Amino acid sequence: MYERFAHEYAAHAEDNSYNALYDRPAVLGLAGDVAGRAVFDAACGPGLYARALLDRGARVTGCDVSPTFVDLARARCEGRADLRVHDLSEPLAWVADDSADLIVFALALHYIDDRVALLREFRRVLAPSGALVLSTEHPTTAWTRLGGSYFTEEPVEESLSPDRDWPIRAWRRSLTAVCAEFREAGFLIEELLEPRPAPEMAERFPSDHAKLEVLPAFIAFRLVPAAGLRS
C-alpha cells in the first residue's frame, strides 16, 4: 500500500508528532534493553525503528513488502542490518525457528487479513524466552472516526492522512477481538500500553498533544509466548 507514497511517508514519519514523539518512544520503551539481542523488525518501513535498535546495540534483521521502503531502510541502517523485501501474508521461510530474541512490529498489524497466521509465524521465529512488541491503531480511534458499533470487525479503505492522498486498507476491531487473536496464536500479554505523548510534543505540536492527552490514537503490547503452546 505504501509503495506509491513511500518517499513522502518516510520524510513525514521521521520527525512528525504521531511517529517520532508518540509511537516510536512507546515501542522502543517496551522493547527495553536490546544490546546484543537478535531483533527482527517486521514491516520495517523506511528503517526508523531498525536504526534506533541498531544504535541501542541490537543485531537487526527485518522485512517490508515495499521495495522502496527496504531500499530506504538499508540506506538508513548503513548496511548494518539484514533487511529484505517480503510480504508478511507469506511465511517467513528464510527465518529460522527460535532465532529472534525480540520481534518489533510497529503500526502494521491492522493491515493484515490473517493476523493469527502471522502471529503464529512470529511465535515460531521467537526464542522461548523472547518477546513480541507491537503497536496498532487503538480500537476507540476507528470507532470515533468511523462511527457505528464499536464491536464492528471489517476492513476499511481510507487515506492514512486526512490531508494527503495516501490510500490504505486497514481493519477496525474491538480490543476484545485484538486480544483474542493474541491468545489464539499462543501469546500472553505481558504489558499493555496506551501511550502518552512525549513532553516535547506540547511545544512542537500543541494541537496533537492536546488530542492525545484526551484520547489515545495507538495501543502497544509486549507479548510473550505462552508456556506449552507451540504452533
The major pleated sheet works out as: 7 strands, mixed
Could you give the order of strands across the largest sheet?
3-2-1-4-5-9-8
* Number of alpha- plus pi-helical segments: 9
Query: Which percent range fits the helix content?
Result: 25-40%
Question: β content, as a range?
Answer: 25-35%
CATH superfamily: Vaccinia Virus protein VP39
Mean pLDDT, as a whole number? 95
* Anisotropy-based shape: globular
CATH names the topology as Rossmann fold
**For the record, what CATH class applies?**
Alpha Beta
First-residue to last-residue Cα separation: 29 Å
Rg: 17 Å
Series of H and E elements: HHEHEHEEHEHEEHEHHE
Strand count: 9
Low-pLDDT regions: none
Total number of distinct structural domains? 1
- Helices and strands: which structural class? alpha/beta
Just name the CATH architecture.
3-Layer(aba) Sandwich
How would you describe the overall organization of this protein?
Keywords: Methyltransferase, Transferase. It comes from Actinomadura meridiana. One of its GO terms (molecular function) is methyltransferase activity. The protein is α/β, with parallel strands linked by helices and 231 residues long. It has a single domain (3-225), classed as Rossmann fold (3-Layer(aba) Sandwich). 37% of the residues lie in helices and 26% in strands. It has nine helices and nine strands. It has helices at 6-15, 17-31, 48-55, 67-77, 115-125, 139-146, 175-184, 200-204, 206-212; strands spanning 38-42, 59-64, 82-85, 100-106, 126-137, 154-159, 167-172, 187-193, 218-225. The strands form two sheets. Strands 3-2-1-4-5-9-8 form a seven-stranded mixed beta sheet, sandwiched between helices. β2 (59-64), α4 and β3 form a beta-alpha-beta unit. The two termini are 29 Å apart. The model has no long low-confidence stretch (mean pLDDT 95).
